[in-house]
UniProtKB/TrEMBL annotation:
Protein name: Uncharacterized protein
Species lineage: Eukaryota, Fungi, Fungi incertae sedis, Zoopagomycota, Kickxellomycotina
Domain of life the protein comes from: Eukaryota
Length: 420
């Protein structure tokens, strides 16, 4: 397994470089790093959510490069599969809203509705009047340009149209390039979106997963640990000539999926840690549920409000139902203040999402005047929000405006050092 100790932030990178080049003080005399409450004892790692979408169109070349320049520890892509079997990077299973597809007459006839099963409890998702990745060929995808989501008026719009949609292979090449050129490792953390949708109509029911596994293996971020059906992927043409790493070292890797069956498959077939994305599965927030997740997942990632309002209040607010007797038999819902401790005791790391740019609403239930049950804690600033989660000991955070998050992380680290 690849092991890497993350560098604190863009700000700390600059300070470190200046100190090493300008100071004659031996590095050995530096104070030891303070111990955090994370499972590793190291500082919380920052995952650039869709790259750096606070400033660049999400999942674009510019977004990924900016995430690297700002000091993200991991750079996140979301994966979809085209009609002709190419893995591409796009957050949604559809393409409206963040691309110019509505302005391309040649693709108008591909607009449709789709319904698919999206989680282990069999819940369905339906999307109407959209252009779906699964219905377009890569050649048609290449016609599109990425736009910044227009509803976030504070985000720069002047990069709209500059970037096309990347393939998964191109994303991995970008991360390899920034690793070499910036001289530090960056983690890759691909999310497999809606496997049941992308495996529909394929030659077998794990086609999507195996396609992703083979690609990640080719680029050196995965080892395959169990037989997969390579014969069904002889058409997969991966880059033969990889840029030499030289003295650079590839960063860590992790899989993500909301589909627990897919997550389990990825864990069984590679040596790459799996992030179980869980938001509306009540059983997952019980002691027995964590035991079940620990059987295949190294990291649990869930919506941040579950750590503030608590699982029960959060699930009730969104009208998620459960069998009271089943939950009681599984040990009952874990209190929000105990979630990290209970997960860590099972060897599971925590990765809440999403920590937005401070110009955006933080989106906690306790901020809604119509919510009757108020949490005892309700963050009023970005610093108060992040410090709450740092105190809890979460191991990763999905963040937007990485510079802002990095700066606050460095401030928190300095406070720990002063208190030691």
């Amino acid at each position: 397994m690849r092991v890497w100790s993350p560098i604190a932030s863009t700000a700390s990178l600059a300070v470190t470089a200046a100190t090493v080049s300008a100071s004659s003080t031996p590095l050995a005399s530096a104070s030891p790093a303070p111990k955090w409450n994370t499972l590793s004892g190291k500082m919380t790692r920052l995952v650039g959510h869709r790259g750096e979408k606070a400033f660049m169109p999400e999942h674009s070349l510019g977004s990924y490069w900016q995430a690297a320049l700002e000091g993200a520890d991991y750079i996140e892509p979301d994966l979809g599969l085209t009609k002709d079997g190419h893995l591409i990077v796009n957050h949604n299973e559809y393409l409206g809203g963040t691309t110019n597809i509505a302005r391309i007459p040649e693709l108008a006839h591909l607009k449709s509705n789709k319904t698919w099963v999206y989680d282990v409890d069999g819940r369905e998702k339906t999307v109407y009047n959209e252009w779906f990745v699964a219905d377009l060929t890569l050649e048609q995808i290449r016609m599109l340009r990425i736009n910044q989501a227009s509803e976030y008026t504070w985000r720069p719009q002047h990069f709209n149209g500059y970037f096309g949609i990347l393939t998964f292979e191109e994303y991995l090449q970008v991360v390899r390039n920034v690793t070499i050129e910036l001289g530090r490792p960056f983690g890759v953390i691909p999310e497999l979106k809606s496997p049941t949708l992308y495996n529909r109509g394929r030659s077998y029911d794990r086609y999507f997963e195996d396609r992703a596994i083979l690609t990640l293996e080719h680029y050196g971020w995965a080892n395959i640990t169990r037989w997969i059906n390579r014969d069904q992927h002889i058409d997969l043409r991966l880059s033969v000539k990889l840029r030499p790493l030289g003295t650079a070292v590839l960063g860590p890797s992790a899989w993500q999926s909301f589909d627990m069956d897919s997550a389990r498959y990825l864990a069984q077939h590679t040596d790459v840690p799996v992030v179980a994305l869980v938001e509306q599965l009540p059983w997952a927030f019980t002691p027995a549920g964590l035991d079940r997740l620990a059987g295949f997942a190294k990291i649990l990632s869930t919506w941040k409000d579950i750590f503030v309002a608590g699982p029960e209040a959060y699930l009730r607010h969104y009208n998620i139902t459960w069998d009271e007797q089943d939950i009681e038999q599984m040990g009952g819902f874990i209190a929000p203040k105990d979630l990290v401790r209970e997960a860590h005791s099972r060897g599971i790391e925590l990765s809440p999402y999403t920590f937005y740019d401070s110009r955006q609403d933080m989106a906690y239930m306790c901020q809604d005047d119509n919510v009757e049950s108020k949490s005892k804690f309700c963050p009023k600033s970005k610093a108060e929000e992040l410090f709450y989660f740092f105190d809890m000991g979460v191991d990763y955070m999905f963040v937007e405006n990485i510079v802002e998050a990095s700066t606050l992380r460095l401030q928190y680290d300095n406070q720990l050092a002063q208190a030691a």
